[in-house]
Each structure stands twice: as structure tokens, then as C-alpha cells.
Amino acid sequence: MVAYATHGVLSGAAAKNLDESSLYSLTTTDTIPLAVGMSSKVRHLSMANLLAETITRVHTGNSISEILE
Q1: 15-36 burial string, b = 16+ CB within 10 Å, else e?
Q2: pTM score over 0.85
Q3: Contact, 28 vs 8, CB < 8 A?
Q4: What three-state secondary structure class fits 54?
């Protein structure tokens, strides 16, 4: 089983709970930093390129919805 979160708030006993769960992996974005010692089941994806492209398109007046296709 895998899980995805766009803005994963992982605090308190999250690392322990994830490690002890049957979850294979949890993928989140890097909009919130991961705590030191977070479970190795967590995969953190960068939002930098998507945010940079969105800002560029807003500035130049181009379509934002095209980057989500």
C-alpha cells in the first residue's frame, strides 16, 4: 500500500507510526520540511520547478493550466 500527500504534516510519533505500519511508502511534497530521523518510507518531492514555472507563466501572461496537462 502506498499513500500520497500534497502537504504532509508529519510530527510527533509520525516516524514511529509509519515504520510500524503496513504502508510501503508515503510520497509528499517538500512544502513542509521533514523532521530529522523521519521514516525511510517517506519520499519527498521537490516543488521548485513547478513553482518556478508557474511564477514565470503568471509574469508572462501564459497559461498555468497547460503545465498540469
Answers
A1: beebeeeeeeebebeeeeeeee
A2: no
A3: yes
A4: helix
**How big is the chain, counted in residues?**
69
Q: Which three cell numbers stand for residue 22?
A: 503496513
* 69 touches 57 (CB < 8 A): no
- Which pLDDT tens digit goes with each residue over 9-68? 999 999 999 999 999 999 999 999 998 889 999 999 999 999 999 999 999 999 999 988
Please tell me the distance from the alpha carbon of residue 57 to that of residue 3, in angstroms, as a whole number.
Answer: 30
H-run or E-run covering 3: strand 2-5
